[in-house]
Amino acid sequence: MAEGLSPATDIVAVPPEGRAQAVTAHAQGTGSIQAALSRWFAAQALIGLSLVCVAIYAVTAWSFQVKQASEFERQSELIKHLIQESRDDPGRDGLRHKLDDFFSTHAEISLVLRSGDEIIYSSAPARTSGRWVWMPMQEQPMPSGDAAMQLQLGIDVREDAKILARLAWTLVGAVVLGSAVISLTGALLVHRGMQPLKKLVQQTAATGPEHPGRRIDPAPYASEITPWVAQFNAVLDRAEQAYQQLESFNADVAHELRTPLANLIGMVEVELARPRSIEELRDALLSALEEARRVSAIVIDMLFLSKADRGTVARRSAPVSLADQVRTVLDFHEAMLEDTGLRVHVSGDARIGIDAGLVRRALSNLLSNASRYATPGSTIAVVIDTQPDGIWIKVANRGEPVAAEVLPNLFKRFFRAERSRTDSSEHHGLGLAIVAAIARMHGGQTRATSRSGVTEISFSIAPES
């Protein structure tokens, strides 16, 4: 039973300020949430504003292109109209004169007019430093039968380019300044938002075994943090309960082992105080052996409970009959039952995979407990009942009722219903605790009831998954 047990671990109490420093050091070692969130705010602001500004620039540039296309179309229609008005001018002088007049007031427009390979008119760009965009060549048919004319317009888009350049620099400045402002305000908001967590760290550091009953009030915290606070308070509850159980367990162990060890030491000292015959020494050794076996039984039971508390799962065999297991245990208790005039009635049955040795041990403990408190000559009922949550094995005896406040404690270690420990030489209060451990190892539960003079103690076995 002792194999596989982990060695005892020393528990060192850490003061609150030490825990707070440890938490701070750990946070610094793994990175700051506040710094990470601030960086993400800055990156999000930079990317978001950049995308918005790029979209603004693209829409503006597209709008200028639409305006330029519209200007090309409008100017092209005007020039075509001039050409139509001059269709009867064989020398084209009138057309050239009209075009000169037109372009004298439209320095931002340039024209190349061809008829076949001949350049009829060409207006040199008035702005040599401009930025010109030329439209594709267009043909203008002539109704008089002359060859069609090809015209090509150019527009100076220098002003549009300047506006786009200023817009680009403005947008870049807006991205930089906006990102800086959003990053700064985001860092401040994150710092402010992290204050409850820092307060929670301080309150957490101020709790622990040295402050029993102290809990963290979840009311001041946001709804996202409240579940964490509730879980932490629940952990504190379990930790305090574990400390209390540990203290109680240590006290009970010391009490249970002190008596047999004191008896053993006293007996040996008495026997060594004066010469003894062989028979007397033999009786003394038998008594010492009995006390040593009692200590050994307590230690073995404690090791078994420790193993069960670590979450050990029972090794299940092929399905067996639970009624057969009960009858096997009854054969072992037959002599004890006859001495007390008790009868046992078994009802129900079920087949399920179990650790037969453990289940028989639990049944033996329940029958011993029932025989101990049953009215002499009465009947002990063993019922095997299949329910949705598992198969329940119930052992009921008629006798003195058990107080309601005592029932929840029956499965605790070293608990005895009687105040006195006059029978502690035979019963050391671990029988029902072992039953509860075996039930847990089979995925089951335990239950105890006492009504109308009938006390029923039961445990369940969960179906195999």
From TrEMBL:
Pfam families per UniProt: HATPase_c, HisKA
Domain Histidine kinase: 252-465
TM region positions: 41-64, 167-190
GO molecular function: ATP binding; phosphorelay sensor kinase activity
Major location (coarse): membrane
Domain of life: Bacteria
Location of the protein in the cell: Cell inner membrane
Signal peptide: none
Catalytic activity as recorded in UniProt: ATP + protein L-histidine = ADP + protein N-phospho-L-histidine
EC number: 2.7.13.3
A GO CC annotation given for this chain: plasma membrane
UniProt entry tagged with the keyword NADP: no
InterPro entries on file: CztS_silS_copS, HATPase_C_sf, HATPase_dom, His_kinase_dom, HisK_dim/P_dom, HisK_dim/P_sf, Sig_transdc_His_kin-like_C, TCS_sensor_his_kinase
Keywords carried by this UniProt record: ATP-binding, Cell inner membrane, Cell membrane, Kinase, Membrane, Nucleotide-binding, Phosphoprotein, Transferase, Transmembrane, Transmembrane helix, Two-component regulatory system
CDD domains: HATPase (cd00075), HisKA (cd00082)
Stated role: Member of a two-component regulatory system.
Protein name: Sensor protein
Organism the protein comes from: Acidovorax cavernicola
